[in-house]
Amino acid sequence: MLFILHNNAIITSIITSSTFDPWYNLALEEFLLKHVRENEIILYLWQNDNTVVVGKNQNCWKECKCGELEAHGGKLARRLSGGGAVYHDLGNLNFTFVMDKKLYNLEKQLKVIIEALKNIGIEAEFSGRNDITVNGKKFSGNAFYNTKNTVLHHGTLLINSDFSKLAGYLQVSKEKIQSKGIESVQSRVINLKEINSSITLEEVISNLKKTFITLYGGNGTVIDLNQFEEEIKSLYNKYSSWQWRYGESPRFDISFEKRFSWGEIEICLKCKDGYISDSKVYSDAMDYEVITKISEKINGIKFQMECIINSIRELNQAEIKSPIIKDVTDWLNEKQL
Amino acid sequence: MNIDVKLEKSTNKNGETKIIKILKKVGDSIKINEGIFEVEVGKGTSTINSKAQGTIESINVKEGDSVNADKVLAQINGEQTAKAGSPNTTPNTFDYFKNIIKPVKLQMESDITIIGGGPGGYVAAIQAAKLGAKVILIEKGKLGGTCLNWGCIPTKTLVRSAQVFDTLKKAEEFGCYAENIGVRMEKVIDRKDKVVAELVAGIKYLMDKNNIKVINGVAEIVNNESVLVKSSTQEITIKTKNIIIATGSKSAVIPIKGIENKNVIDSSDALCLKEVPKKLVIVGGGVIGMEFAYIYASFGAEVSVVEFFDQCLINCDDDICEENKKSAAKKGIKLYTTAKVEEICETESDECMVRFVQDGKDKYITANKVLLAVGRTPYVEGLGLENAGIELNDKKRGIKVNSKMQTNVPNIYAIGDVNNVILLAHVASHQGVVAANNIMGKPCEMDYTAVPAAIFTEPEIAMVGIGEKAAKLQGIEVEVGRFPFSANGKALSYGESDGFIKIIRDKNTGRLIGAGIVGLHATDLIAELTLAIKNNLTAEAISETIHAHPTTAEVIHEASLSLEGGAIHFA
Fold first, then answer.
1. By CA distance, what is A185's nearest residue in B?
2. CA distance to partner chain B, nearest, from residue A176 (Å)
3. Cross-chain residue pair A130–B96, CB shorter than 8 Å
4. The complex's ipTM?
5. How far apart are CA B436 and CA B442, in angstroms?
């Protein structure tokens, strides 16, 4: 009896983002999480173009070729939930369930996805690693974020994504990085288009909405966001910030080494919150003073190649004239982290 | 006190929990609900928040470590407040990171640990605290126990609603008119809940004021110096010098076929009925059964009481039982005595059929609800009596105690219903005071010569000391002074002139030994006679005391006059 009463009282809301900007879409997602009401579940559908989204606790330098991505106009984003890095383009649709914790029921949420796809002739199933698969291949990865009273469950739906880019950007860095964070796990993926060639994005969206209302009831009220622009904007500032996207990487150690005519150099950095918390530079070069200065110069600065290079260059302008500085900065400049 | 911070066993099968960020350092102060760790498991992220406040004593993991539920992640030197221990109000189906923190283990120390926060336990706690003891009180439900939450107090609020309705029904007799009168059970129950809530809050206040630590949880005696308390969030081991068991009693159940029928209710259910049953059968004509019989009869139910013995209210004297029989008949309550309920069946019309045997014949009554009121039984399950070697009484019903309320284990006491001596709230409270005094070095003993009892039938019944029945059994020769309420001015003006008072005197010693009252305000009037009996006053002492006119207390005056040679206002 209690359960029935409860169920009847569920408020359902649906929202579809109109932008492909990952930072805005993630800001909107967090906004919904902050504002979801008691007994409410929100279905939020969104797409990002040319984006890599890393898990909350991932080292972005390690999990993705950030430099290359950004050089090609792509965006790096970090989400609230856990798990590994994913590539998004317009061939991928993201769904988010934001709800009152009391309503959390993973099976029921997944049923929305699985039933909706069934209507389009796709027999999907849930796999043990929080993936939804078809013929044993993954087309949807799911992740979660919990607050005291609310939960966010979201996932991807690969409909017609460009797998060559996916494979290109989601490569583990060649640098020596020892991270305390979460490492991505590669999966065999599949586009739904391969199963049903006539499938369209619109069809998936409309079926998701329909199944959501069938399973949860309510009327799927559309949320009007106009009045909340200020708040969403401040969240946008967070999601687009370097500090969140890069700086949020869990503590890690990274080292670079290179042999030059004057000797070998190895730069070892300990990083925390995106800043170099400790640096050691080893070299067999005769000019040991320069090496020590480099180490001192980069200690405590932001772990961003541009900052590191600029710091080291400052040495040149000051007291020291050494070929080592130019060699090192040129070398670092070529590196795309 | 050091509090362990742990993960709760993860229901997620996708692997171990990884510590991502440590948000605090050793020595940092921490508040309740403040984050200590950021963790990730199975693609879900969350923060582990502190359930205690204090300072971080140690952090036993590093960022990047994978941990399981057994690992003590950190220790907090501090205390958990009651707030942190309060149970979740809504059960939730969320199984992902549900309460990621396992119950934390705590250690506490006290002079006296009291198990049970009813009228025995909480009074003992206050008395002991006033005498300077460090007291911990453990309650698994609500403070106030059965008396306040499921017994005395809630029934009295229902009795009052019934009286108001009765008054409305006979308003015309008083020259008043009321139309469309009725009872709305929801409101009656609502009012009851409010009264109860106010009194429970009052006890909480008293606990705070007396610096008594109240723990919400279930207690188990580990040995004679230690008690383990478990709640959903804590596991507390209390090292204690003394223990007072005050766990009370629960509704007794007798083996009747069909007892599991959904329309069979107990007294707690009878306090929450959403509507008045058309037909109510009450199994058991004791105090609880009779009180409900009058309440629901007033509300309009057709009430039948089936009693195993030859009298309802078997502990009362015959004249009182007779009076009750008359008033029950007036109220339309049917009493079946010397009747044994054999079976309760469900009928096709969703009613119950109660089959009982009377005079060797099978008899049947149909009912919408069957209230089981066959007494109460001491509550000792799961208490761990055997761990400390605590003995039960000879009938194996209740914990054996001496007159100091001490069990066979010298530093463990048992008070109230759990010792099954006299199942009355005020006896429990008094026993609590006796136990607390003895523990705190003020030797005293329990004296049961003047224990008043109050029954809220209509009219009310009250008794104290030795009745005529008991005197006869004990071979005491008695003299009885009587007076009817029909000769009392106030009772007459109230339109409540049924009943009588009797005062019983030992013929040989001249001492007052007992009294019984059936009539208006009987339960309040008994106090004077209790005082008299307890303090060896004579009938003369009462008759020489001026009683205010016009009050019902005049009946006491008149009854003692009748012992002394004749009432003034009765011939």
1. B43
2. 17
3. no
4. 0.81
5. 8
